[in-house]
Write a structure and sequence with these properties.
Number of strands of chain A: 19
Strand order of the largest sheet of chain B: 6-9-10-3-11-12
Oligomer: heterodimer
Shape of chain A: globular
Number of helices of chain B: 9
Mean pLDDT of chain A: 82
Shape of chain B: globular
Largest sheet of chain B: 6 strands, mixed
Structural class of chain B: alpha/beta
Mean pLDDT of chain B: 90
Number of strands of chain B: 12
Radius of gyration of chain A: 22 Å
Radius of gyration of chain B: 18 Å
Low-confidence stretches of chain B: 248-257
Strand content of chain B: 25-35%
Chain lengths: 486, 257
């Protein structure tokens, strides 16, 4: 964030003006989940009937799953059972009274990280949840930005707003890629999600800027059940950035987001994530459980969906951004860097489902394990019968620092068409003492050594990120690995 | 420049260096010879600060200061350079990027401005030509997939760019064919100068035909058993290390080849 131009910075620091937060009365529903709670959420958000029904169906499905203990256990992650009745599923944004008064009340470790990342003071306050006096730049850059997109017919707004303003689009596409029956956490999300982002790019429009949650400042309050829906109509293009390199302070331990992407004929969606939620302390106490379902559907011919992710945060990451390659000649890509340090656990990867003819997919996964971190790549390449001429290339590389961490790779291949070509490569390497000594003998510190080796290792993924994001991601890896050597 | 006094060092309680005394002045080239297992490489590593060695006695002064108190990167920034016998491969980090980062760290330490990419490129081109190296090696990851000879030349190239005050060359001649030996030797000779000291650790005399040392020391069983001028190297070549034993010096351990 630090490297962004000032205009963006001031935009981030602005008070949100378009209402969906302010029209919610400040109160909280009791902990626990029931049909009443869901109705309450839906009513408070002023949702049309179809949304409530959808939520209730999702809830009933989830309840079945919960009662039959169908919470997924196949992932290579370990955590104590979650008490879903102890979670508060709806709460209005915190009032300033409850927030820390100044940075003096914030964990010094967190502040030190902000310092290292070079985040401006004002943003540090914002990120750590300090009650900020929100009288900044009066020129509304955000308004200008929104107007410009509006002229092109692009819709970029909060999910709540989309439900109210564009119910037909929401109704048509919601759950069309990730139905609420998809998995335990997707069902939970569908029942209780409070907000998220909505994007629609009309036919033939190339979105002239990277869409980022930075521009939607209310995103910082979307809470633990976030939902994103992006639709790229025929021949359109959009690049969407999610997340932030700065570690955000958050009271909610469980995060179960859902992201759905739909690409029509000749459309391209590029989705980049930098995830740096609180990973817990050095002893593995605390930290976010990040259980996310992300999936894109290449519905039209020649469409393309490209996922790029840099995952350095969260105590536990469970995430498989996937592509359903339905349209002929469609392309799916997955570029990932996942880093686990201290006691972090990550089980992440992708699914590439080839349905259409001549569909192509590329998977580049880079896992870095340090400390006692456990890093698992889990990927599936499925080539269906009709996927004549489908091709996949997968590369999974693991890098280990130290001898207490772990790297695991589970690639699944399912090929039902004999004309398909599937390639898989995997490597595991370790940063050795002799390599670090070589750097030091040339005047570079051990930390420089690790950071240069790790960045070299991740190069293939970083070059898929938009430039500014790439620079930040490099810095972020360095900071995340601090203390893992020497 | 360098003063080694009664240096004792061990690995896993096994004493490898058993009282080394050596003084190296600026402008001098010293060759350290000796049979396998005599402690030559250990001496080079201890001077560079590699972990895994315990200094049990003695001291090393570098420009009057306690060298052994400094971490390896500080020694490097102060001008100590080790050309590795077996340079390690660093996948993913380009030679060019690595070297520029190293040079800039050292320059910063000396209070100089960082060198910009264009000037660096120009300088690299000059030095690389002198070492008859393939320019494409610069854009490849450090030492990755380099032949033995290319690795050694790369060490000499790094030395030429970093311009150390004290260069320690650990068996730089091993594994080189005669043409490579000649170009590498020329590289070393170009670096000779009144402000710089060079220590050549070598098993064979042949390097010393090209890089003529001011002093030759013979290391055996962790001690310097004989010191002399360049003639000593010839004598050794002729008579073998066994000759030292016959002449009543402390026995050199290990086989003589």
């Amino acid at each position: 964030m630090a490297t962004k131009p000032e205009t963006i910075e001031s935009m981030v620091n602005q008070e949100y003006k378009w209402g969906f937060i302010t029209d919610i009365e400040a109160d909280t529903v009791p902990a626990g989940l029931s049909e009443d709670v869901i109705e309450l959420i839906s009513t408070k958000k002023g949702e049309p009937r179809f949304m409530l029904e959808w939520r209730l169906n999702a809830y009933r499905h989830w309840l079945d799953l919960e009662q039959s203990s169908a919470e997924p256990t196949w992932a290579n992650i370990h955590y104590p059972a979650i008490d879903y009745q102890s979670i508060v599923y709806y709460s209005a944004p915190k009032s300033d009274k409850d927030r820390p008064k100044s940075l003096d009340e914030i964990d010094p470790e967190l502040l030190r990280t902000y310092e290292k990342l070079g985040i401006p003071l004002r943003e540090r306050e914002l990120l750590s949840g300090v009650a900020v006096d929100a009288v900044f730049d009066s020129v509304s850059v955000a308004t200008t930005f929104r107007e410009k997109l509006g002229e092109l017919g692009i819709i970029f707004c909060s999910f709540s707003e989309a439900v109210r303003e564009h119910p037909d689009l929401v109704r048509k596409y919601l759950g069309s890629v990730v139905p609420y029956t998809d998995n335990f956490f997707a069902a939970l999300n569908a029942a209780v999600f409070t907000d998220g982002s909505f994007v629609y790019i009309p036919k033939g429009v190339r979105c002239p800027m990277e869409l980022s949650t930075y521009f939607r400042i209310n995103a910082k309050n979307t809470g633990q059940f976030e939902r994103t829906l992006i639709i790229a109509d025929e021949g359109s293009y959009v690049s969407y950035l999610e997340g932030c390199t700065a570690p955000m302070r958050d009271e909610n331990q469980l995060h179960a987001a859902v992201v759905e992407l739909i690409a029509h004929d000749n459309a391209t969606i590029k989705y980049s994530t930098v995830q740096n939620w609180y990973p817990g302390d050095k002893e593995g106490k605390g930290g976010i459980y990040n259980f996310v379902t992300k999936r894109g559907k290449c519905l039209g011919k020649n469409s393309k969906i490209s996922w790029t992710q840099v995952e350095t945060g969260s105590a536990i990451t469970w995430k498989y951004p996937s592509c359903i390659l339905q349209g002929d000649n469609s392309v799916g890509e997955f570029y990932s860097v996942a880093l686990t340090n201290n006691y972090q656990q990550a089980d992440t990867g992708t699914k590439m489902i080839h349905i259409g003819k001549n569909t192509r997919s590329t998977i580049i996964s880079k896992g870095i394990s340090a400390g006692r971190g456990q890093n698992t790549y889990r990927g599936m390449v499925k080539i269906l019968k009709g996927a004549e001429g489908a091709r996949n290339y997968s590369q999974c590389d693991s890098l280990l620092l130290g001898d207490k961490c772990g790297a695991h790779t589970f690639p699944y291949l399912e090929v039902k068409n004999s004309t398909a070509q599937v390639e898989h490569e995997a490597t595991t390497s370790k940063i050795g003492e002799d390599q670090i000594f070589y750097f030091r003998q040339r005047g570079l510190s051990a930390e420089d050594a690790v950071s240069m080796i790790v960045n070299g290792f991740c190069k293939q993924v970083f070059r898929e990120l938009p430039m500014e994001f790439a620079v930040e991601a490099q810095k972020l890896l360095g900071v995340s690995l601090e203390g893992s050597v020497g | 420049m360098l003063e080694i006094k009664n240096l004792h060092a061990s690995v896993d309680d096994k004493e490898i260096l058993r009282g080394i005394d050596l003084t190296v002045n600026a402008g001098e080239v010293h060759a350290i010879m000796g049979p396998n297992g005599s402690g030559k490489s250990t001496l080079a590593h201890v001077l560079a600060g590699r972990e895994g060695y315990t200094i049990t006695d003695g001291q090393v002064l570098y420009e009057g200061n306690d060298l052994l108190a400094l971490p390896p990167e500080e020694r490097a920034r102060e001008g100590v350079f080790l050309a590795f016998q077996y340079p390690v491969e660093i996948p993913g980090v380009s030679n060019m990027y690595f070297l520029r980062a190293a040079l800039n760290t050292i320059r910063k330490h000396r209070g100089l401005d960082e060198i910009d990419a264009m000037d660096f490129l120009k300088m690299v081109r000059e030095k690389i030509k002198l070492l008859e190296m393939d320019e494409t090696l610069m854009n490849r990851p450090v030492n990755e997939g380099f032949s033995g000879g290319e690795k050694k030349r790369n060490e000499m190239f790094q030395m030429a760019v970093l311009e150390p005050k004290l260069a320690i060359l650990d068996e730089t001649d091993s594994g080189l064919d005669i043409d490579a030996l000649r170009t590498v030797s020329e590289g070393i000779n170009r670096l000779r100068g009144p402000e710089r000291a060079i220590i050549l650790v070598t098993h064979y005399q042949r390097l010393l035909n090209y890089v003529v040392p001011d002093f030759v020391h013979v290391l055996a069983d962790g001690r310097i058993v004989r010191s002399g001028g360049k003639e000593l190297a010839h004598e050794l070549e002729e008579k073998g290390y066994a000759w030292l034993e016959e002449s009543g010096e402390p026995a050199a351990s290990g086989s003589v080849r």
